[in-house]
Amino acid sequence: MAAVHYFDNNATTRVAPEVVxxxxxxxxxxxGNASSMHAxxxxxxxxxxxxxxxxxxxxxxxxxxxxxxxxxxESDNNALFGGxxxxxxxxxxxxSKVEHPAILQPCKWLEEHGARVERVxxxxxxxxxxxxxxEALAIPGPKLVSLxxxxxxxxxxxxxxxxxxxxxxxxxxxxxxxxxxxxxxAEIDLAAVPADMLSFSGHKLHAPKGIGVLFVRQGTxxxxxxxxxxxxxxxxxxxxxxxxxxxxxxxxxxxAEEIRSGEIGRVRALRDRLQEGLLAIPQAVxxxxxxxxxxxxxxxxxxxxxGEAILxxxxxxxVCASSGSACTSxxxxxxxxxxxxxxxxxxxxxxxxxxxxxxxxxxxxxxxxSVLPGIVxxxxxxxxxxxx
Length: 388
Ligand code: PLP
Prior knowledge:
Radius of gyration: 22 Å
Bound molecules: pyridoxal-5'-phosphate
Strand order of the largest sheet: 2-8-7-6-5-3-4
Strand content: 5-15%
Shape: globular
Structural class: alpha/beta
Largest sheet: 7 strands, mixed
Number of helices: 14
Order of helices and strands: EHHHEHEHEHEHEEEHHHEEHEEEHHEH
Helix content: 40-55%
């Protein structure tokens, strides 16, 4: 197989070898049920609690506030459905127009079943319209806010500390979908950010798919989403997934080290070099605020050509990236995020997302810079709209 140059880390990441190593004994040697009375099971309970402590230390919260789930989507759904159910009739949900479908779809369902949902817009650079947010918080009655920490398509950051403070001052419950932020930002500190709930997912930070976390601050009104046994203090039923929980503990430890050591700065420098190189392509535009942005993400448009066509040619060169568009029922739907930012039609369809990780190298960036200008020129030559 030809070399793979992987730039799709906001979709999913390679599981770190250290994580695989930490998980392996829990499949065939230490496979007990953490809820069992016997020592064989009780011992793995200790490993689970150790992982919970590592994650709590990383997030700046208490271990008791960490609830293990199966993924970011489950955590988000639990926060929204469980939060609205606990707050009761007449609850207003305040969210943004650029959230991930794991938030947008539950909000749509809640709206169809009687809840009021306010969707706050964003500016042209993808940053949150804070005036509109303040206005939404003035709505009387119980309120649940859900705002993403970092946008999965553009990497643009919302000022979550300020948003949480404003929500608390307005008496609202505050949830943040931090699925793209955890492991990439030093600012994730729940001792300083008064969020009531926070979601994230293991597979975005080099743990496997199938493990997530919902942080629930003590005293937060939220109903459990999965009912059954008493696991996770009756907040999330289902036999605990010990190998994956242990793996997530290890992944978080590695992420903490990456932030401490400045490795994340190397990733940022690679992203910036890629950005500068690609901006040399005529009319290329970066989508989203360049400062308030994840260090690993670049969303860039090449007007007058389709993102999907670019991806196809990149894939032939072994480059994995993604576009904001989703191919639904035969029609190419432009990204709801870029639309909310008011991106022009020509940019909407030609946008590509590159998302990096600790495993990206200079050679990966060189490969993109050597093939992409030619791909764009070739596709533009075929475009009836392109005038050089
Ligand atoms: N929230 C955001 C911002 C995401 O980027 C994703 C995944 O891409 C999710 C939620 C859903 O996470 P999962 O795939 O673990 O369900």
